[in-house]
Write a structure and sequence with these properties.
Elements: H1 15-18, H2 21-31, E1 37-47, E2 50-57, E3 65-72, E4 81-89, H3 102-105, E5 126-128, H4 136-145, E6 151-153, H5 155-167, H6 175-178, E7 190-192, E8 201-204, E9 215-217
Length: 257
Amino acid sequence: MTPASARPRAAKADTVLVKAVDDARAAAVAIGSVDAVGDHLGQDTEGDRVVTHYFGCLLPGYVGWRWAVTVTRASRSKAVTVSECVLLPGAEAVLAPAWVPWEERVKPDDLGPGDLLPVSDDDYRVEPGYVTPSDQDTLEVVRDLGLGREWVLSREGRDDAAQRWSDGDTGPNTEIAKAAPGHCGSCGFAVPLAGSLGGGFGVCTNERTPFDGRVVAHAHGCGGHTDVRLPAPSEDAPEPVVDTLSYELVPLELDQP
């Protein structure tokens, strides 16, 4: 036996429901008003004995929207029943922008004095730390390891920070880094970070560069590298230049003894 085709059967347009334009318009007028319902725009067959009629919307502020009225009927019945009537946006409808969660809307520059930036309990960037011990010697070790806090940076948080810093303007792929005479990893002004991030990043302390106080990748660089030196002055003085082309006007002394 040949297996039946899995393709769904297309619904056949119901003649009674397709002709029920007046019933659909009356439902739209009952929801809106006579002045809110425009011309009939067409219909779609949603299923067996289910048809949706569309009408233009004339309400102010709803340009490009349309009334959608879905009608149906029982088998072997000629009575048309309205299932729902809603406003739907069309292809040229004016819509509000897509919703963006506040975590994605907030920018670093938005945080000002007195503002709070809460961290959710399920933030993957941090994970629970350890309780601070009472022994002073142990406490010093714990603090050095960064484990004396309630929350510490997670592995995913470190990876995200490293990727963000590497892709930023203090990473190795910038034009200034490519033209630099040396990398930050070998610069005396770069102080390595503590912990695992110190293997790839440091903080610039050269106040004469635009990167002072910022995290820089070891592969980053600029013209302020400590290997850059002024050329030593030459001990050989150049020969004096005598001007033999121009002349100087000297006043003539007429009264002489």
